Amino acid sequence: MAVTAQRRLVLLGATGSIGRSTLDIVEQAPDAFAVEAVAGGYDVAALAEVAIRSGARFAAIRDESRYGDLKAALAGSGVEAAAGAKSIVEAALRPADIVVGAISGAAGVEPTYAALAEGRTVALANKECLVCAGAPFMRTVAERNVTLLPLDSEHDALWQALGGADAKTVEKLIITASGGPFRTWTRAQIEAATREQALRHPNWSMGRKITIDSATMMNKGLELIEARHLFGVAPDKLDVLVHPQSIVHGLVAFADGSVTASLYVPDMRVPIAHCLAWPERLQTNARRLDLGEIATLTFERPDLGRFPALGVAMDAMRQGGGMPTVLNAANEIAVEAFLDGRIGFSDIARLVGQACEEALRANDAREPATVEEALAVDHIVRERSRTILASKPLSGMVTVQ
Ligand code: NAD
Ligand code: MG
Are residues 61 and 209 in the same domain? Predict the structure, then answer.
C-alpha cells in the first residue's frame, strides 16, 4: 500500500538518527515521497551524502563557515547549497507537504516554528520545541489551523490509541519509558555512572542528547510536557509507566474503564511511516510484533528517588508558565557539560533543579507569549547555568577528572 498522491518532504535534522530513519522510509516507498530540502548542523560530508542520495533540491548547513565545503561536496549534483541559521529557516520554508522537525534541542525552535507559521504540516520529533515554546507553537497551530503530527513514539502511540477521541474527554494519557540503562541500578551506582555507560541505551539507537536524557529519565519529563501541549490536557491527566520491553508506547484510559494502547517493536520507522502517510498507511519492512515470542510485558512505576530529573521536570510542568523553558535550557547545558566530562551524571538533575529554583526566586519565569520571548528566556537560562557550573560546586557535585 502506498499513498495516493506523492508527498514532498523537507527534512530538518536530516543527518541525525530520526533524519536517517525518515530517509529509510522514503527509500522504501520512492513513489510516495520526494525530498525537497535537507538541513543539518555541522557535518558537511553527511549532509552532502543525504542530499544527493535523497535527490533533494536544496541543502542547508547550520555552520556558516562550511558553505564553501558544502558547495564543493555538492558540485555537479544539481543540489543547491546554503549555509547559516537563515538557510535552515529557508529550508523549512521550501514548498512541501510535510516538514519533518528532527533537529536536536532548542536549535530547532526557529526553523520549525517558521514552517508552522507558514501553514506547513509539521511532523515533530524535536520535542524541545514544545518544551521551550509550547504556548506560542500551539497558539499558531490553532490560529493557522495547521496540522502538527506527533512523531515521537509515545505521542504517536497516544494519537493512535485515542482513535479520534478528544483527549480532553479521557481520564488519563499514559506514556511508557524503557527506564534506560540504569533502570535496575542503585542510587550510588547511578551517581558514579560514566558517559560510556549512559550512552548505552538498551532498546533504542538515538542521538547523544536524547540518549543521555533517556538515562536520566529527563526525556520522559520532556515528553510529559510535550504531551500536555500536543493533546491540550492538564498535567494531572498525564502519567508515566516504566516498561522495559518498549513494546507498548502509549495508553489511553477512558471514563468507562476501557484502556486502549498502541504497540509496536521499538523502531522509530514505525511512527515515522504512520506520520508521513497519515491518514493513509504505508507498507514498511519494519520487524513485525510477535507477542507470542516476546511472551512477557512488564510495567513498574518510575522511581523519582533514583531518577530525580523526572521529578524536576514534573514540577516544572505543574508550575507551568516559563518553567518548562527554563528546564529545557538548563538541561541542554547540563547534558553538554556531562558529555564533555565536566560534571558527573547526577549533577545533570542537580544543575537543572538549581536553575529552576533560581528562576522561581528571580520570578522571571513568565509564560513566553512568543517564540522570541521563549528564546530570550532560553538564552538567559543558558548563561545562568554556565555561571552556576563555573562558579561553585553543585550541592553534592561529583568532580570529574
Ligand atoms: P541526532 O543528534 O541524531 O540528530 C540531530 C540532527 O539535528 C542532525 O541532523 C544535526 O546535524 C541537526 N542539528 C543539530 N544542531 C542543529 C542546528 N543548530 N541547526 C540545524 N540542524 C542541527 O538527534 P536525533 O536522535 O535524531 O533526535 C532529533 C530530535 O528527535 C530530538 O529532539 C529528539 O529528542 C527527538 N527524538 C528522537 C528519537 C530517536 O529515536 N532518535 C525518538 C523520538 C524523538
Ligand atoms: Mg519518545
Answer: no
Which residues are near ligand 2, the ion (C-beta closer than 5 Å)?
152-154
Interval 382-396: pLDDT, tens: 999 999 999 866 755
Ligand 1 close to Cβ of residue 61 (< 6 A): no
Q: Give the domain CATH number at 118.
A: 3.40.50.720
CB atoms within 10 A of CB 182: 21
Atom of ligand 1 nearest to the CA of 12: 21
Domains: count for the chain? 2
- 338, 389 in Cβ contact below 8 A? no
Q: What is the pLDDT of residues 15-59, one digit of tens each?
A: 999 999 999 999 999 999 999 999 999 999 999 999 999 999 999
Q: Are 218 and 304 in contact (CB under 8 A)?
A: no
In degrees, rounded to 5, the angle at the alpha carbon of residue 173 between the alpha carbons of residues 168 and 178 is: 160
Question: Does residue 84 have its Cβ closer than 6 Å to ligand 1?
Answer: no
Residue 136 domain boundaries: 7-151
CATH of the domain at 367: 1.10.1740.10
Same domain, 107 and 200: no
